């Protein structure tokens, strides 16, 4: 498992490298390039919270708003000790490209708190989340900047955010603000299927990849890094396609079974034991050699900067499907491309989450209740459309899929700036 330090260092550098490359290949307008090279707003808040022992701790929270040319800022909140301004900038910028590529009326934002949530009780996490929301104030808002879940945040926390934000509004305005956050529990404005949207989307992109390659996912061996929201649901849908999970790595360890690991049984084991290690039928595996496991497909679904020049050349898989944001750094990517390994880039591969969030936002805004079937059908359609655009762009510009995806995203933003006049 890559170190937490590796997971953070240079994430923003990677985004800039990717952006520069795409801007050069497509010939992005220089003024638009200047605008997109910086973040619009960077909000850093320090806020006190009373702990269970009666003492006060002060926390640091971030919300970076990269760009809103296409609509309100949109993106998750991460609770992790690697959260800092560099990580928030990188993740916010990726959101701008992701929402544009998916054809959504959103820009990009991201944030979180520099914290290890395992060290806090549920009551403390609730107070931390509520105080963070209060500290952000109207820097977030249903038509301005809409957070969602990310690493170590979940539907419960989104409900606390909605409740806290709505409570700051007048009684008549409260219910108009439910879509200040997405990824809420079903029953509190949440969308059926938002829980699985990202993992499902990862697998839809892999199905599309398989079609392009004239193959199928049936019988393909795969490994997953991260067995949280994205990793588990991706494994769930991979197995429905007849693929075989042979390795899993998370923050607690690395397990391997060449005969196959049942994701449903592993989830139950993890829920009961708070670890994946020791799961029946599996052996512990050297964490540093994880990506070198003999398999066809790798799904990184944890942190950034996991596939680097230290391990990329060990990879035997045909394709890396980036469930995580920024799992492959610039050097790692160059090695994969040289070795003929396909990469389904994060801004396409994991876009099912924000597309699901968009559906939830529409549901709240329009006072509708969508069904699971509505969600799954519409999600698949949007992801397949985006995948098709990336393939077309890759052929047109004779470039790799990540650069091609950036070109689709940047073209849409460039057009919006040109239509409205770059400098009004
Ligand atoms: N939740 C969502 O809807 C979306 C999430 N993503 C991205 O997917 C990735 C995973 O997010 P979630 O599943 O939501 O988070 P999560 O908190 O549910 O799961 C994170 C997983 O990563 C593992 N992990 C943490 N540190 C690790 C390390 N050093 N080595 C190996 N594994 C480690 C954890 O043990 C856990 O299994 C992140 O990069 C996130 O930004 C992207 C799009 C949407
Ligand atoms: O659902 C959302 O709004 C954003 C999810 C997210 O943080 C991401 O796509 O990286």
Automatic annotation (TrEMBL):
Listed PROSITE patterns: GLFV_DEHYDROGENASE
Residue ranges annotated for the Glutamate/phenylalanine/leucine/valine/L-tryptophan dehydrogenase C-terminal domain, each copy included: 191-421
Keywords carried by this UniProt record: Oxidoreductase
GO MF entries: oxidoreductase activity
Pfam families: ELFV_dehydrog, ELFV_dehydrog_N
SMART domains found in the cross-reference section: ELFV_dehydrog
InterPro entries cross-referenced by the UniProt entry: Aminoacid_DH-like_N_sf, Glu/Leu/Phe/Val/Trp_DH, Glu/Leu/Phe/Val/Trp_DH_C, Glu/Leu/Phe/Val/Trp_DH_dimer, Glu/Leu/Phe/Val_DH_AS, Glu_DH, NAD(P)-bd_dom_sf, NAD_bind_Glu_DH
Annotated SUPFAM superfamilies: Aminoacid dehydrogenase-like, N-terminal domain, NAD(P)-binding Rossmann-fold domains
PANTHER family per the UniProt record, alphabetical: GLUTAMATE DEHYDROGENASE, GLUTAMATE DEHYDROGENASE 1, MITOCHONDRIAL
Recorded family membership: Belongs to the Glu/Leu/Phe/Val dehydrogenases family.
Listed name of the protein: Glutamate dehydrogenase
């Amino acid at each position: 498992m890559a170190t937490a330090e590796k997971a953070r260092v240079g994430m923003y550098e990677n985004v800039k490298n990717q952006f520069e490359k795409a801007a050069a290949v497509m010939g992005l307008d220089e003024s638009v390039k200047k605008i997109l090279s910086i973040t619009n707003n960077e909000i850093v808040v320090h806020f006190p919270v009373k702990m269970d022992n009666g003492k006060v701790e002060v926390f640091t929270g971030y919300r970076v708003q990269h760009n809103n040319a296409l609509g309100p800022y949109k993106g998750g909140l991460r609770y992790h000790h690697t959260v800092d301004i560099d990580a928030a900038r990188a993740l916010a910028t990726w959101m701008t490209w992701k929402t544009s590529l998916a054809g959504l009326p959103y820009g990009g934002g991201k944030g979180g708190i520099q914290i290890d949530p395992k060290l806090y009780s549920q009551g403390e996490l609730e107070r931390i989340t509520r105080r963070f929301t209060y500290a952000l104030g109207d820097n977030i808002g249903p038509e301005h900047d809409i957070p969602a879940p990310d690493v170590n945040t979940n539907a419960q926390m989104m409900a606390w955010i909605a409740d806290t934000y709505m409570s700051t509004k007048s009684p008549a305005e409260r219910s108009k603000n439910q879509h200040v956050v997405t990824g809420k529990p079903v029953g509190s404005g949440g969308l059926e299927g938002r829980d699985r949207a990202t993992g499902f989307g990862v697998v839809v992109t892999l199905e599309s990849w398989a079609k392009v390659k004239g193959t199928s996912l049936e019988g393909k061996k795969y490994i997953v890094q991260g067995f949280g929201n994205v990793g588990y649901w991706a494994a769930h849908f991979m197995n429905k396609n007849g693929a075989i999970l042979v390795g899993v790595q998370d923050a607690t360890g690395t397990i391997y079974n060449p005969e196959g690991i049942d994701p449903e049984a592993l989830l139950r084991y993890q829920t009961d034991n708070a670890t994946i290690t020791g799961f029946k039928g599996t052996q512990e595996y050297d964490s540093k050699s994880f990506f070198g496991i003999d398999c066809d497909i790798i799904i990184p679904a944890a942190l950034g900067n996991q596939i680097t020049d230290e391990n990329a050349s060990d990879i035997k898989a045909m394709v890396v499907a980036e469930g995580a944001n920024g799992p492959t750094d610039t050097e790692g990517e160059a090695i994969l491309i040289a070795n003929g390994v396909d990469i389904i880039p994060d801004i396409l591969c994991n876009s099912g989450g924000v597309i699901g969030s968009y559906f939830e936002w529409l549901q709240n805004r329009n006072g509708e209740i969508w069904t699971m079937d509505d969600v799954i059908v519409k999600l698949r359609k949007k992801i397949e459309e985006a995948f098709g655009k990336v393939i077309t762009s890759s052929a047109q510009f004779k470039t790799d899929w990540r650069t091609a995806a950036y070109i689709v995203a940047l073209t849409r933003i460039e057009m919006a700036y040109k239509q409205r006049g770059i400098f009004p």
